[in-house]
Structures are given as structure tokens and as C-alpha cells.
């Protein structure tokens, strides 16, 4: 997925809108806000929570407006904006302090002494698409809970890479870390959340999802 | 070709799907997964996890926020 979705010839590109906005064209800035507000709001919800997200969206666009002239086009506009939005969310979380949460370590996969899987993993693909197994609203609440329980470094990389679907190279730029570090953090997050989802399947339907781990 | 056990294959899954593994290692994982039902199931659930959570955390911008952004944008007009 690319951060800049505009199709040439059909609508102005992010970069051209940003250049016009930086030159004082408020209608171009409005178009950017209109275009990016769903993604910024979704990101803020995923990195923080739905209660705090609206203020963080407003703070993000305020900072974008103030710093538009410093956008030089080295990165795509969307990546630059994601970086601002991510920093706003992380600063907010830091200001609140880390509330104690129950670790997801218990959901990491387990292996026998000779390195083989200890149990048959559950079929999440089928379970998540069957309405009788996963109630949608319950799943949404549990998903938010699981993501919030990730170690923060894993959560940030996972949200940007897997939930926002940004390329690993963009996530590395946004978080100012190496791509290999992004991959390592996302991998750990996936392992924890995979086990967490499996736990939900088994909790709801015994071993129907495929078995215990 | 290297022979893998489940635990070492699992540790390489992210790099496998990102396409940063050597051909030799990628083929070793393919061979192991093809012969191991538990790894086949594990890989399927590993791949499904981001999609399930992405869909479960989709949101729409609340109308109040849209309205307050519009009010703020109007205040920027000369």
C-alpha cells in the first residue's frame, strides 16, 4: 500500500496540494485535511484510544499547518504526515504514563524440547469470518484490548506496519529505527496477538478453533 | 538444503513474508511447512492475524470531529 493514493490526472497529488497549502492556499490545505483525516483518526485510535483520538487529530493538523513550509518533498507527504501524527500520539501516551497492563507473553507459541509445536494452532481465518464464533463488537473490543496490551515498542511498529499497512521502509523512517528492527518488533507483536486471538477462539468454543497451545 | 524444526521456522516468518531471506532459507521453510501440518496451521493463523485486527479496528471519523475541523479550517481563511 502506498501512502499517497492520488491518481495523476484525476485529482491533485498530495505533494501539489502541500505545495499550494504552504504558499497560503487554504483550500488546498482543506483538501489535505479532508483526504487524510480518516487515516489520522484511525491511527490515533490504534495508537491511543477513541476518547483521546479527536484531540490528537486536531493537534496533528495544527502541527502540519505550522510546519507545512518545512515539508521539502524528500519523503511522500503521507509519510511525513504519518510521522507527525505518530509523534503526537506517542508524546500524548508518554505524558499520560504507562498504565499497568497484563502482558501478552503467555500467548507466545510454545514448543516441545525438540523444537516442534506443542499443539495444533487454531484456524483463525475461519473463526474470524464465522459470525457464530466471533461476535463483531466483541472482537473489536478484544482487538483494541489486545493491541493496548502489547509492549509499546511492538505496538507502534505493528500498528503502522500491519494495521495502517505502511511499507516497512516507511515505518522505519517514521519511527527512526532500522527496517530490521521494525520487522523484529512486528513479528513479536504478531506472535503475541496470534496467540491472543487463538485464546479467544478457544475460550468461546472450546477446542473447536483447532486445539490448545 | 538446511533442515528446519518448527521453532526456527517460526522465528523467520516475518523475514520470509517480507522477502528478505536467502533463497536457501526460503526453500527450507517451504519444505518444512509442506511436511508439517502444525506449521501449515501456524502460518495460516500468523498471516490471518494482521487482517483480523485491521478489520476489527476500522473506524469512521465522528461527525463532531469533522465539524470541529471544518470550524477550525474556516478560521484559517483570510
Give a description of the structure.
The complex is a heterodimer of chains A (213) and B (78). By secondary structure, chain A is mainly alpha-helical. Helices cover 62% and strands 0% of the residues of chain A. Chain A is elongated and about 65 Å long. With 78 residues, chain B is mainly alpha-helical. The mean pLDDT of chain B is 93. In chain B, helix 3 crosses helix 4. Chain B starts with 5 loop residues before the first helix and ends with a helix. At the A-B interface, helix 2, helix 3, helix 5, helix 6 and helix 7 of A face helix 1, helix 2, helix 4 and helix 5 of B.
Order of helices and strands of chain B: HHHHH
In percent, how much strand structure appears in the residues of chain B? under 5%
Distance between the termini of chain A: 33 Å
Major sheet of chain B: none
How many separate domains make up the residues of chain A?
2
Provide tags for this entry:
heterodimer, A: 213 residues, mainly alpha, Rna Polymerase Sigma Factor, Chain: A, Arc Repressor Mutant, subunit A, disordered N terminus, disordered C terminus, B: 78 residues, 5 helices, 76% helix
What is the topological layout?
The complex is a heterodimer of chains A (213) and B (78).
Chain A: H1 14-22, H2 26-47, H3 53-67, H4 77-96, H5 124-129, H6 136-148, H7 152-163, H8 168-175, H9 179-205
Chain B: H1 6-11, H2 13-18, H3 23-35, H4 37-56, H5 63-76
Helix pairs in contact in B: 3-4
Task: Kindly summarize this structure in a few lines.
The complex is a heterodimer of chains A (about 210) and B (about 80). Chain A is mainly alpha-helical and about 210 residues long.
Amino acid at each position: 500500500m502506498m501512502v499517497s493514493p492520488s491518481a495523476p490526472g484525476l485529482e491533485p497529488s498530495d505533494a501539489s496540494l502541500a505545495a499550494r497549502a504552504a504558499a497560503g492556499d487554504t483550500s488546498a490545505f482543506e483538501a489535505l485535511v479532508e483526504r487524510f483525516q480518516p487515516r489520522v483518526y484511525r491511527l490515533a485510535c490504534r495508537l491511543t484510544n477513541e476518547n483521546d483520538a479527536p484531540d490528537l487529530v486536531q493537534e496533528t493538523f495544527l502541527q502540519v499547518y505550522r510546519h507545512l513550509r518545512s515539508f521539502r518533498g524528500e519523503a511522500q507527504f503521507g509519510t511525513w504526515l504519518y510521522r507527525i501524527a505518530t509523534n503526537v500520539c506517542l508524546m500524548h501516551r508518554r505524558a499520560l504514563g504507562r498504565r499497568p497492563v497484563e502482558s501478552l507473553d503467555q500467548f507466545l507459541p510454545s514448543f516441545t524440547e525438540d523444537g516442534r509445536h506443542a499443539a495444533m494452532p487454531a484456524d483463525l481465518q475461519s473463526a474470524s469470518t464465522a459470525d457464530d464464533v466471533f461476535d463483531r463488537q466483541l472482537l473489536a473490543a478484544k482487538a483494541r484490548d489486545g493491541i493496548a496490551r502489547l509492549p509499546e515498542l511492538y505496538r507502534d511498529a505493528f500498528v503502522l506496519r500491519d494495521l495502517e499497512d505502511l511499507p516497512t521502509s516507511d515505518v522505519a523512517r517514521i519511527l527512526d529505527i532500522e527496517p530490521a528492527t521494525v520487522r523484529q518488533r512486528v513479528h513479536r507483536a504478531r506472535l503475541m496477538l496470534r496467540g491472543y486471538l487463538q485464546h479467544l477462539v478457544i475460550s468461546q468454543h472450546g477446542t473447536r478453533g483447532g486445539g490448545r497451545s | 538444503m538446511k533442515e528446519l524444526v518448527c521453532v526456527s521456522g517460526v522465528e523467520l516468518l516475518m523475514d520470509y513474508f517480507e522477502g528478505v531471506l536467502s533463497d536457501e532459507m526460503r526453500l527450507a521453510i517451504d519444505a518444512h511447512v509442506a511436511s508439517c501440518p502444525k506449521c501449515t496451521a501456524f502460518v495460516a493463523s500468523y498471516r490471518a492475524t494482521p487482517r483480523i485486527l485491521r478489520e476489527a479496528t476500522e473506524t469512521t471519523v465522528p461527525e463532531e470531529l469533522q465539524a470541529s475541523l471544518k470550524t477550525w479550517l474556516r478560521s484559517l481563511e483570510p
